[in-house]
Amino acid sequence: MQGKGFIKFMAILLGIVCLYSLSFNLVTYNVEKKAKEYAKGDEAKEKAYLDSMATVPVYPVFGLTYQQVKSKEINLGLDLKGGMNVTMEISLAELTKSLAGNTSDENFNKALQNAQVQMNAGGKDFISLFVNEYEKLVPNGKLADFFVNPDNSNQLSPSASNSEIKSYLNKEATSAIDRSFIILRSRIDGFGVVSPNMQKQEGSNRIFIEMPGVQDKERVRKLLQGSAELQFWQVYQNEEVYGILENINKTLAVSVKNHVKDTTAAKAADTTKNAGGKLAGLTKGATENKQDTSANAKAAEAAKSNPLFSVLSIPTYTAENGQQGLRPGPVVGWVQQKDTARVNAYLHSAEVKPLIPGTLKFMWGLKPMQGTKVFELYAIKVTSLDGRPDLGGDAISNARYGYDQNNRPEVNMYMTSDGAAKWKKITAEASADPNNKKAIAIVLDNTVYSAPTVQNEIPNGVSSITGSFTVEDTKDLSNVLKAGKLPAPAKIVSDFVVGPSLGKQAIDSGLMSFVIAFIVILIFMAFYYNKAGWVANIALLINVFFIMGVLAAFGAVLTLPGIAGIVLTIGLSVDANILIFERVREELAHGKNTAVAIREGFKHAMSSIIDSNVTLFILGIILFIFGTGPVQGFATTLCVGILTSLFAAVLISRLIFESMIEKKSNITFDNNVTRNAFKNLAFNFVGHRKLYYTISALIIALGVVFYVKNGGLHLGVDFKGGRTYIVKFDKALSTEDVSKKLTEKFEGEEALVKTAGTDHSLKITTPYHISDQDPNADKIVETALRKGLDELGAKYEIGSSQKVTPTIASDIIYGAYGAILFSCIVMFIYILIRFRKWQYGLGAVIALFHDVLLVLSFYTILDGVLPFPLEIGQDFIAAILTVMGYTMTETVIVFDRIRERLSQHGKEDAAHGEERIQLINFALNSTLSRTILTSLTVFFVLIAIFIFGGDSIRGFIFALLIGRIIGTYSSLCISTPIVIDLSSDKDKK
């Protein structure tokens, strides 16, 4: 074997990378285990412990902090951890209207309305749709009349063509989406979500946000859909505010002292539980747990005498004379992230409010100081009687990031004409004292993004902002400055909520399916292939290690479909070994010695292995491109698994065999039971092809009958829009009774109710209020749902909920169509290139459509019969594409055997009909053992996932199960035999 040294080097290198990537999970596990032991069930103490460890080095070798290590571990998706994800849509219609000065022109607004209707029906580019609609309504109309103004005169001229306006609008739309992304990200950061995941959905005006652990739906919706407000404020200096903070600290100390006296006199034994007073909740952390260490006791005592200053540090510096002084600048305090809520409570308490003048309000900085979890507190100066800021975001005309003369990142800000005049006055006041130049705070959503010091009066409205910025900081700040320029409202068009109990159940069921499937494969391979089977098992163990390590290295989010992808990859990874082992057994049967047989087996199997894995990998890429959320998770693990499987099953197993040959070990590929399996097979697959065509046609016809009977396919919520809830009851309920009661509460709108695994768990779907633009629509629907459920006389828990608007649904439908058609085209091209016969390519594609129709037929026939819903949704499309991959894999292997047989006889093609029939039958029979064995291993895996993998993916796995059976049947009885019927009449004769 050539290149053994290089393969060993790559295996060791990949192993080190995977070990390093997975080590973060081990480190965080150890830290969190200690936190649980310390807290003894107290969640507040556990969180406080982890917060205190955030900046402490916990990785002994590399000195990484807990916060850094936590960010590098494999994150769990919502279906495993619980939480909420939303898809936000930026309203380009309102943005366009705002750019046009909110014109009342009838044709303009009609064009906007028509474009939005087309977008809702599955359109892609809103700006193009709008321009086209306007030109239809006003053939010679000039859009420049609406959009050109003094503020954009450097970008547009009054004579700009409609195509130039279109280009301008596209740039503004992209900018608006980028700005919205920055704003939403800052809001999520402020919400305190651990490991949030945000993605701009390229080619659309949507942003996907995933928030593990978040359950407060109303708070999230209010937070994300609120309008952003950019403001500029003057600020107080540190020395101007210190006296006020000192006074607050003294007042709080007296309140705490009185509080402790009162509660001690009342009941000394239980100060925490029975404490009254307005500051009881704030001082709890400082007065409980007397049995803690002396350090904690001292900290508690310090918190009594200095409640505010025990959690808030005043910025100071050491002067030249060695004395401590207050640090100049707008930052008046430093606070650990875990203590910000306590400081907020102090500053808003009844005792403290009278001490804070009306011209002062406190605001937090956006991010913690670099490398810490410490936030800066700013003192904002209110100079107007109405409490408004000195300048609003509408004063900004543009902002750009770049570099100054010293090549340092900076932001250039441009004001409107009105804004420039106000800006001149503000900057003049801030820079009036040459010995005490002051800062101006740039605030968005009551959070200070930056507070640059003003060096001089700025008369022309063009400002340069510099500081300790990274390039990313300047990009963010420039986007924030532009955020206040134009309104681009964001609304939630889909959301998905999973309760923590459902997440825990998903983890347990996912791990169970993984373990069982893994054990089944190991036993099967060891039994069927004897010692060679153990070589495959070692390669399989290494493969699983590589898969998990690569996923961790790329920061992938592990979901339940992702686990299904890993488990499925386990079944598929043995496919390469089965191909090799079956070829080795053929060579051994020809009388060759073991070493030669192994070498020839690897050599002859390689073409089939490459072709089959490439086709499945292409399907995985298509799944990733066209899918979202769980489908992408499945596609990611599938693609990673295919790559690592090739490396482990082909190269590493070859190394093991080479080592065994060198040691002259006895290598066996069978046993007494399996030795003669699949020998001397001579099925006439081609001769009976018309029978197979008839069977398939009858099943499809039956599917059509049930399609009409059932009123169409059972589309999931992500294909038709609506809301879905998974509700668990404490007893079994009739789906008809639940549906009747909920339809009544939903004002006559349909409530489709189906069992979800057991009679105690129901899946409820309704289109009630799904097109309602009212921000309270979600609450209205959930209130009606709970009213109906309350009247059923059973205890219940809403485990998960999902909302998809018709706009998203139409996009998903078109994406699904595109995925299937695109995959068929790619498969046809690949086979045409590899086998140079269009009959092969077309035969394979016809078989793909045949498989899709059969799976759909079984879905319509069995819908309502099985105890779980058979819905056509995104997961189903993922299953369909995977089934197509199975069929292509099987078909390509048969085609490879045909090509090999022709090559052995010195031919490029079997030109005559009878010869072609014999050749195809030979190829099908000689690969039958591999086809059956691979199908069985994958089938075992799917059965394990189906039984133990949980309710949430049972419908998806069922599609894979029947698809696997259909794919095997199709590759043997349809795709390859159909090549005969695609040949010319002369060839048939």
From TrEMBL:
Q: What is the protein's membrane topology class? A: Multi-pass membrane protein
- Name all Protein export membrane protein SecD/SecF C-terminal domain ranges: 490-661, 789-983
Ranges for domain SecDF P1 head subdomain come to 385-488
Intracellular or extracellular location(s): Cell membrane
Instruction: List, for all copies, the residue spans of the domain called Protein translocase subunit SecDF P1.
Output: 178-235
Q: Which UniProt keywords apply?
A: Cell membrane, Membrane, Protein transport, Translocation, Transmembrane, Transmembrane helix, Transport
Span-the-membrane segments of this chain are: 6-27, 510-529, 536-557, 563-584, 605-627, 633-657, 691-708, 812-833, 840-861, 876-895, 932-950, 956-980
- InterPro entries given for it? SecD, SecD/SecF_arch_bac, SecD/SecF_bac, SecD/SecF_CS, SecD_1st, SecD_SecF_C, SecD_SecF_C_bact, SecDF_P1_head
Source organism superkingdom: Bacteria
The task this protein performs is described as: Part of the Sec protein translocase complex. Interacts with the SecYEG preprotein conducting channel. SecDF uses the proton motive force (PMF) to complete protein translocation after the ATP-dependent function of SecA.
* Family per record: Belongs to the SecD/SecF family. SecD subfamily. Belongs to the SecD/SecF family. SecF subfamily.
* Name the record gives this protein: Multifunctional fusion protein
Gene symbol of the encoding locus? secDF
